[in-house]
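User: Structure tokens for both sequences below?

Assistant:
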Amino acid sequence: MTGSREGAATENLRRSVLIEYFSGQPQKNSKAVKTYEAFLKMIESGYWTPGDRIPSEKNLVDILPVGLATVQNALGRLVQSGLLERRRKAGSFVTEPAAAGRELTYFKFSGDDGLLPVDDIDLRIFETREQGRWSQFVGYSNTYICVERLIDVGGEFRIFSRFYLSDPKFGSLLKMETSELKDITFRIMFRDRFGTPPHGFERDISFTRLSLDVAEKLEHPAGSTALLYEIYQYTLRDEALFFMETIIPENSRSLGLGLSGVQSN
């Protein structure tokens, strides 16, 4: 009985929030725009989370002052953008985002003896004026927020990761203790703390040579060859969220790149 009451309370809350998201938009917006934006904000804000079945089209028409065609159009746009999936005779469900997520579990190094444990050695967050490949993607800015991670892989070698943000609303990250950031799932943090859950991404894989400062961190000779893995992460609205680069020195392990299952040696 308690569970059913809690479930009903949650659904009533979601219903109220959806109405608020719809009615709180500018009057000049058409009903079609208001409906789509309201649905999108329900996903952005975490009221509809990955795996959730959203209300049926009939229920949505009952909740909002719009017709069936308007609801179907909005849902169709979300399906086309990969945010929802329709399951025959089951309804519409929020999809799992294609996101970089948690860097430490994203890279999987293995050999005949199985997967190697991956742990933070050092983590720091700071403001930087340095410009680079991230500048064009996240937007040119006087300063960027940078999160650096030095990661131990099974006591055998290290990898080095940086990601960059430029949006001022992420400034509160600079006030976080490094202990709060350690082992954090960034996908969830961006969704819950900032209302900008990651969604689609692009990536580049290439080779680079270790600069002196990175070589010292990785305990490899400067100028030696390493794998450079870059992620260009987007929000649900296809806006740039962050740029991440990870440098992986030469090693004898197989690398599994979680999202695609591609293996490289």
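Moving on to the next sequence.
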Amino acid sequence: MFKRSARSTGTAVQATGEKKGFKRAEAAIYLGVTPVTIDRLRKRGLLHPSMALRHPIYSRDASTAS
């Protein structure tokens, strides 16, 4: 379930194949819409990406709830 690298500092990394968040184009594919639709949903306040990083990240849980 958890893997540790050879140079690990003691923190465990979850080794699952599921992504928790998507970039704009990935979110569009996941939802079956175009990237422009993702922009429109964001502008209307129906999708709320995380802006903690340089690129907005859309969580899988928030994408399925909308």
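User: Anything stand out in the second?

Assistant: The chain has a mean pLDDT of 81.
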